[in-house]
Amino acid sequence: MKLSAVIISRNDNYGGHLNERATYAINSAINSFDEVTYVDWNSESHSLLYDIKDNLQLKGNLKHIVIPPSAATNLTQGDPYAQKCCEVLARNIGIRRSTGDYIVSTNIDIIQPKKEDILKVIEEHGEDCFTTISRREVEWKYIKEFQGGDYNFNNWSAFRDDAYKTSVPRNHLEQTLPNDQYSLINCCGDFQLASNHVWNTIKGYEEQMSYACFADTNVQKKALLSPL
């Protein structure tokens, strides 16, 4: 069984320490998945990946797609209100170019679970399911403390092992929209897993939703209502 991951971002230091967080996240993805596709969308100067490549533990399974500002503008039809990092379009580009039996759509700062745990989710839910898993929050200062005040990118695996034991599930989830059970998570997937068949059937994310928020709500409804 081949597992693929799609990660998208923009070189804008979103949330602070983005390059550092991305390095841990992509190294974990390279370790957990058979194929990782990183889509850099609309970075003004250059792809984020060029800044962190020397700290990545590459093993030939990382694909890199760059959508420069000129192409991003064309793809969003010049809409001034579209996300600068248009998640629905970037994710669909990655999903359509993924070759895995199962594909995870995830974020640039998510340290990925171990492969055996992803396989357990697949075994539990089956090939016709669409599974969304919310992140467990870990503050940047905790990462720095664990690494002894240094980044120590080679030690990412030990940090993940520690986070497995010390991080806690998010128990404060609340619906963004009243009476909408799908709006517990309202921004593009922290971790959204489905078979290639399911992604193709629902045709990925709704590309007209090029603005912030609710793409997750929409794609979850599409998966539930689609005849699989």
Which terms would index this structure?
9 helices, alpha/beta, 37% helix, globular, Spore Coat Polysaccharide Biosynthesis Protein SpsA, Chain A, 6-stranded mixed beta sheet, 228 residues, single chain
Quick structural gist:
With 228 residues, this protein is an alpha/beta fold. The chain has nine helices and six strands, in the order E-H-E-H-E-H-H-E-H-E-H-H-E-H-H. Strand 1 (3-9), helix 1 and strand 2 form a beta-alpha-beta unit.
What is the CATH level 1 assignment?
A: Alpha Beta
If strands are numbered along the chain, what order do they take across the biggest sheet? 3-2-1-4-6-5
Summed up, the domain count is 1
CATH superfamily: Spore Coat Polysaccharide Biosynthesis Protein SpsA, Chain A
Rounded mean pLDDT is: 91
- Distance between the first and last residues' Cα: 20 Å
- By CATH, the architecture is named Alpha-Beta Complex
Low-confidence stretches: none
Strand content: 5-15%
Q: Supply the helix-strand structural class.
A: alpha/beta
